[in-house]
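Lecture 7 notes: from sequence to structure.

We start with a single chain of 504 residues. Read the sequence below before looking at the structure.
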Amino acid sequence: MSERETIAQIPLSRDDQVFQKLVQNFSKLAKWVRKDLNKNKNTASLFQKNFNKDTVFTWMQNPRKFEKQLRGLSRFLYDESLHYKRICQYFANFNTYDYVVDLKGITDFSKLDEETVTKKYLETLNFIDVMNIKHEFAKAEEIAWRDDVFFGYEWRTKDSYYIQQLDADYCDITAFEDGVPVVSFDFSYFDKYKDALERFDTEFERKYNIYKTDKVNQRWQELDSYKTIAIKINEGLDYFLPPFAGIFFEITDIYDYKELKKARTALENYLLLVFKIPYLAKGEKENDFALGMDQALEYFDMAMSEMPEEVGGMISPFESAEAIKVDRTDKSTDMVVDAENALYNAAGVPKNAFNSTDNSASTLLMSIKQDSKCAFRILRQFERHINKKLKDFNKTVYFKIEFLNITEENRQDKVNMYKEGATLSTPTKTRLCAAMGMTPMDVISSNFIEQKILKINEEWIPLTSSHTQSGDGGRPQKEETELTPSGETTRKQGSNDKGNKVRR
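Now the structure, written as C-alpha cells:
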C-alpha cells in the first residue's frame, strides 16, 4: 500500500472534513470571502429600474395609443438626464420673442386718421406689453419641447398677465379657430384632485358642475378659446409624441455605460488579501493546519474589520494564487463618449454645442442656424395666438404682431441687416430696435424720455463712429462666422498680429 493510500485511510479531523467539503463545492468556498468583489456593483440603469426597455419599445410601436406613457417617460428623462434636458432646452432657448407691431388689413391709407391710429397703436402695444411675452412664452415653449404640447389658461388683469399650465393628460385639441387650436378639458380631473378646483377660473367650476350632471357625455368640454393657448411641436401629427422620443434608448445607453465604467473602475482599484492558513511544521497528514478553522476565522474577521470597503479578503490553504485580469484591447475607446456622440447624432444636434471639440466655430454656427429653423416654426403659432386676440381687442384699426426670426447667435447679423436697410431709407427702424432686444413700447418710451424729458438730443454731443477716427487703417476684422477653419487657426496663433509678422 502506498504512502498516499495509507494517509487516505486515516480519519479526518472536523476541520479537515469542513475544508474538504469546501474544496468539492467552490460556490461554498465563496462564503469565506468576507467582502464580496461584486458587492453593490449593480449595473442596471436608472431607466431600467423605472421603465422596461421592451415595454417602451411596445409604446413606440403604437405612439397614438401610448402617448400618455411616452409623455411620462419624456418628463422622467427630462428630470433625470442632463443630456436629455439640455437637448430640449437647446431648441426651446433659440427664440428671443423679439417682435414688431404693424397695421393689418388696410386698403386705403388716405382714410386713416393719424390721431386715431396713434391712440389705437399705443393701446395695442400696452395690451401686448402686459403679457410679458419673453417670459411667459419661453416657459410654455420649454414644456412643449419636452411633451410635444403645452396647454395653458390665461389670467389677465389691466396690468398683469400669467399663463396657468394645464395637465396635458387631461387636455386635447378638438377644433381650430382662425388657425388657432381650441382646447377641450377632461373634467374628471377634479374627481381626482378635488382641492385643486379653487385654483382654477370660475369657468372650470361652472363646467365641472355640468359634468357632474352627466359624467358620460359632459366629461370633455371645450374651454373659452380666448383664454386658452395650445402650442404643439409636431404639428403634422394628430396625436402627441415627444419630439425626441427617438433618442430614448440612446439616453439609456449612456446610463448603462456609465454604470459599467464605474463598476470597472472600482474593480480595477480593488485589492484582495489572501490569508494563508499555516501548516504544522511536522505535519504527518494532509491538511494538517496549525490553526483550526474556527480560530482562523476569528483572526480573519478581526483583520477584515479594520480594512476599508475597497479591500476584500479570503482564506486559502494554497501557497500562492495567480491573478488573471481581462483588459480591453482598445483602451483609447471610451464607451460613454461613444454613447454620448451617438445620442447627439440621433437627435440631429451638433455635439460641440454641448461639449468643446476641435470643430470650427463657423461650422458650429452654421449647424445652429439650421437647427434654429425648427424653433422659428413655433413663433408662427404664437403669432396666430396673439393676432386672434388682437382681432377682438381693437375693432377700429387692426394691428398684427410679427415675431422676428432672431436668436442670440444671429442677432448681430440681423442688427447689421436692418441697420444697412435703414441707411438706405427702407422702413426697418422698428425692426432694428427689435433686433437689439427692444419691444415697440420700449422704443416709444425711450424715445420720449430721451427727446422730451432728458433732451439728450440737445444736451449731449453725438457719439463718434469708430470708422471716422484717424488710425493706421487696414481692413476691419472679420466676424467669427466669416472665418474658415484655417482662418480661425491663424487668429488663434496670432500670425497676422503686427508683432508676429516677419518683414521681408
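The beta strands are 99-103, 149-156, 161-166, 171-177, 180-186, 220-222, 228-232, 271-276, 311-316, 399-403. Keep this in mind for problem set 3.
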